[in-house]
Design brief:
211 residues; mainly beta; five-stranded antiparallel beta sheet; 13 strands; 8% helix; globular; GH11_AS_1; carbohydrate metabolism; polysaccharide degradation; GH11_AS_2; xylan degradation
Length: 211
């Protein structure tokens, strides 16, 4: 696995710059958290001030990684983003991702994914209509797994968009309120990022967060 800021030429060749949403500027205010999970990941290119990051991964990924930009304390505020994302044949997500401290939970609003839909092997909670699309909603329990407090047991919540996209506005509150009916704390938030996660295959992404 190799993600490095030195591959400027590669990124320029394969990553089209995200289209600017009308009337929006990159979100420079408020972004204060860089997610770079996995000691073997290496570097990825990011600019907190401009709210943009770029990264790629190669065949031979041996473990899970999650990278992104966002906020040290999450919220139910809507998030507008634009991205280029290529993950054909890859286990990967493009998602709003975060944690709740208590009851401890990990959550994903999956906007696009590679070859694996997490709701295919989790407990279905039904569907949610939001932002012009239907999301499959599901939950799972992770037992003695890595978490924000070390090794622990916690609940995962997923909303997976049935019509994948790479730009738009995510009305986060709709997902939080739906999950809250099934035990999601909907308060006491830890970090929240617009993230790319991958654990197999190859791919690339460039993501800009807008205010």
């Amino acid at each position: 696995m190799k993600v490095t800021a030195a591959l400027t030429g590669f990124l320029a060749a394969v990553l089209a710059a995200p289209g600017t949403e009308p009337g929006l500027l990159p979100r420079s205010a408020g972004i204060n958290y860089v997610q770079n999970y996995n000691g073997n990941l290496g570097d990825f290119t990011y600019n907190e001030g401009a709210g943009t990051y770029s990264m790629y991964w190669e065949d031979g990924v041996s473990s899970d990684f999650v990278v992104g930009l966002g906020w040290s304390t999450g919220s139910s505020n809507s998030i507008t983003y634009s991205a280029s994302y290529s993950a054909s044949g890859s286990g990967s997500y493009l998602a709003v991702y975060g944690w709740v401290n208590s009851p401890q939970a990990e959550y994903y609003i999956v906007e696009n994914y590679g070859n694996y839909n997490p709701c295919s092997s989790a407990t279905s909670l039904g569907t949610l209509s939001s932002d012009g699309a239907t999301y499959q909603v599901c939950t799972d329990t992770r037992t003695n797994q890595p978490s924000i407090t070390g090794t622990s047991t916690f609940t995962q919540y997923f909303s997976v968009r049935e019509s994948p996209r790479t730009s738009g506005t995510v009305t986060v509150a709709n997902h939080f309120n739906f999950w809250a009916k099934h035990g999601f704390g909907n308060s006491n938030f830890n970090y929240q990022v617009v993230a790319v996660e991958a654990w197999s295959g190859a791919g690339s992404a460039r993501v800009t967060i807008f205010s």
